[in-house]
Write a structure and sequence with these properties.
123 residues, mainly alpha
Length: 123
């Protein structure tokens, strides 16, 4: 069995699953054809399908929606970007900016550091 990426990452596999399911193939046969474990495929059919049908487009849309909700928003935001940009314009060093952010932000190193900002956003 393939252990690379979960079924949910492959739209092509979802389309094949839909077609084979419509043709009346059993989950174990489809799993063998796709190189996946039968229990993973059965969970996908139960989670995304109905008793009679499975729609690859609906399943992919559902996956993307759920995936977007579960991702944390991250520690970088527009307010921090404005703050770092403003302080760099005032010729503060990245160490000064980081020191000030450590003093004002709860928890140390909870954010993207100024040097990371310089590398990512000014090149």
């Amino acid at each position: 069995m393939s252990h690379e990426l979960p079924l949910s990452y492959h739209k092509r596999e979802r389309n094949q699953l839909e077609l084979l399911h419509q043709l009346g193939w059993f989950a174990r046969a489809i799993a063998r054809k796709l190189g996946r474990h039968h229990s993973s495929l059965s969970r996908e059919l139960k989670r995304q399908g109905t008793e009679e049908s499975y729609c690859a487009n609906r399943a992919q849309t559902s996956y993307i929606t759920k995936r977007a909700r579960c991702k944390p928003s991250g520690k970088w935001n527009a307010e921090r970007q404005r703050y770092i940009t403003m302080k760099l314009a005032e010729t503060w060093s990245p160490e000064q900016i980081e020191g000030r952010m450590n003093a004002t932000v709860e928890g140390r190193h909870n954010y993207i550091k100024p040097y990371q900002y310089l590398r990512c956003f000014t090149s």
